[in-house]
Amino acid sequence: MNDDEFKTASQMIINKTNYLIDLMHRHRLKRPLILLNWNTLTGDTFITNGEYFRGGIIIEQLLKLSSKVEGIGYWLNYDLHVSHCKNERDYMNSIELFHQYNGKRPVYFTALLFNKLTSNILYSDDTCIVTGTDSNFQILLYDAKHFNPYLALDNQMNMRATEMIHLNINALEEGMYKIKHFTLDKENGALFNLWRKHHTIHGMDKDSIDYVNRMSFPKLEVYDIDITDTLALNIKMITNGIHLIEVKRYPSS
Predict the structure, then answer these.
(1) pLDDT tens, 7-16?
(2) For the whole model, what pTM was predicted?
(3) SS (H, E, C) the chain
(4) Matching Gene3D superfamilies, A to Z (predicted)?
């Protein structure tokens, strides 16, 4: 697959949605669109699909689709999803919210963080969107790198693909602010690696299931900070990671 073909494949859902919207417009059809079975670029086996963390790619697709469709659907869980698939390849064409034993997949948390954004957009570019108001806003930073999923099997890839982002937010009103910082990436909230580590030839017992489900959550940091003008943030971004920072000014006493 050459570069142009790869780029087209990575945006297949967007391209198909745009084609359908254009087709409906030409035939003067006005109907709400709801996306049901869909997926991003992913691996073609359960292993490559699990190792290929795609949180940032899914956020990218959600942001592009949100203004085009009325709703976006997911399969509820792994067992229900598999029971309606003809084969492994068919399984890769859509996404479920829960894996086995009610473990939350990263797409569950991706949707959760996405829904924390408000409808009032203050700023937007290819890797960032800011919503809210001057005194209560949400910053969503994401990395969306489309690459061959088999490269995700390289254990050193996370280290090579980590970058530090230094973010300064200027001209804030002076006062005390509450900061909440959610991190969803392959080190924080990725179910698959923990699941594999605790899965034996006889499956997982209750202790293992409870532990994996308890530990497979995004990282959360919460703190207060006194700001006179500028908020400085240092963010460790891993390939296809997501960071949501909520900034809320306390009322003046």
Answers:
(1) 666 778 889 9
(2) 0.86
(3) CCHHHHHHHHCHHHHHHHHHHHHHHHCCCCCCCEECCCCCCCCCCHHHHHHCCCHHHHHHHHHHHCCCCCEECCEEEHHHHHHCCCCHHHHCCCCEEECHHHCECHHHHHHHHHCCCCCCEEEECCCEEEEECCCEEEEEEECCCCCCHHHHHCCCHHHHCCEEEEEEECCCCCEEEEEEEEEEECCECCHHHHHHHCCECCECCHHHHHHHHHHCCCEEEEEEEEECCCEEEEEEECCCCEEEEEEEECCCC
(4) Glycosidases, Glycosyl hydrolase domain, family 39
